[in-house]
């Protein structure tokens, strides 16, 4: 069983004089971990901190035993932001070939990555002419090139049709079954059931950390949205007390 891929202790991020993340403690191990919460709750900030591109005000973050952002982690982490991070003036294939040379991987990995995100039929299309969902999948294909040990995905299914969302979640689980730790953020509560483990987040804090079934049971709710609302109400009540 995988040891913790990520360990976070006392993480605090301040931006514009306001606290975005407040004294967070969490670990991420194997399987598919979902980071769910409303837009603006700090999900993207946490992910940027994990990959070492976010300035932090306090706390410690380690990934596979090394400080977040260490040079030794560059080939072990795949990171997909909400905005597509590929070249719009190149084709899908040209983008993948470019990044494969940067990463030092072969054409077999390129072909596998393209197939994994269902873009084989668009290999020769210029990325700037693709739909937003297709462009996001090109970024995901790039992240998969080096077969990362940790895959950090910031809302990768936004704007995708239900069939493609289902297929991508199946891909995330296959990657986890093959040994990668997968962290997926979303603000869509119905995606919670697709995760092995959930981190429910609100206003820069973790409200719950467990399996979807355990969180629903803890909150006495039939679905994750109901559980989230119940936990928010309890949190507000506790704060008032």
Written description of the protein model:
- It contains 7 helices and 10 strands.
- The chain has a 6-stranded mixed β-sheet with strand order 6-7-8-3-9-10, sandwiched between helices. Strands 2-1-4-5 form a 4-stranded antiparallel β-sheet, covered by helices on one side.
- The mean pLDDT is 90.
- β4 (58-63) and β5 form a beta hairpin.
- The chain is of the alpha/beta class.
- It has helices at 43-50, 92-103, 107-116, 132-144, 162-177, 212-219, 224-240, and strands spanning 6-15, 18-28, 31-36, 58-63, 66-67, 77-80, 150-154, 181-186, 197-202, 205-210.
In short:
35% of the residues lie in helices and 26% in strands. It is of the alpha/beta class. The strands form 2 sheets. It has a 6-stranded mixed sheet, with helices on both faces. The chain has a 4-stranded antiparallel sheet with strand order 2-1-4-5, with helices on one face.
- Gross geometry: globular
Strand content: 25-35%
Order of helices and strands: EEEHEEEHHHEHEEEHH
Please state the oligomeric state of the protein chains shown.
single chain
* Gyration radius over CA: 18 Å
Helix content: 25-40%
Which class of secondary structure composition applies to the elements? alpha/beta
The number of helical runs is 7
Spatial order of the strands forming the largest sheet: 6-7-8-3-9-10
Distance between the termini: 41 Å
Low-confidence stretches: none
Question: What do the pLDDT scores average to?
Answer: 90
Number of strands: 10
Largest sheet: 6 strands, mixed
């Amino acid at each position: 069983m995988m040891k913790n891929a990520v360990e976070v202790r006392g993480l605090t991020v301040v931006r514009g004089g306001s606290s975005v993340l407040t004294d967070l403690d969490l670990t991420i191990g194997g399987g598919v971990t979902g980071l769910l919460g409303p837009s603006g709750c700090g999900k993207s900030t946490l992910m940027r901190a994990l990959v070492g591109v976010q300035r932090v005000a306090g706390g410690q973050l380690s990934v596979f035993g090394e400080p977040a952002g260490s040079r030794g982690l560059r080939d072990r982490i795949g990171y997909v932001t909400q905005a597509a991070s590929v070249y719009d003036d190149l084709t899908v294939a040209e983008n993948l070939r470019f990044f494969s040379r940067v990463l030092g991987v072969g054409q077999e990995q390129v072909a596998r990555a393209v197939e994994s995100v269902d873009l084989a039929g668009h290999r020769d299309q210029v990325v700037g002419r693709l739909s937003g969902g297709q462009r996001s999948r090109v970024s995901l294909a790039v992240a998969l090139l080096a077969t990362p040990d940790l895959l950090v995905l910031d809302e990768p299914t936004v704007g995708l049709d239900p069939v493609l969302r289902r297929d991508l979640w199946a891909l995330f689980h296959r990657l986890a079954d093959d040994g990668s730790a997968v962290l997926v953020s979303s603000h869509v509560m119905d995606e919670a059931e697709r995760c092995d483990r959930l981190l429910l987040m609100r206003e820069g804090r973790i409200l719950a950390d467990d399996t979807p079934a355990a969180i629903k049971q803890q909150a006495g709710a039939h679905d994750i949205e109901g559980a989230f609302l119940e936990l928010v109400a309890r949190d507000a009540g506790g704060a008032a007390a």
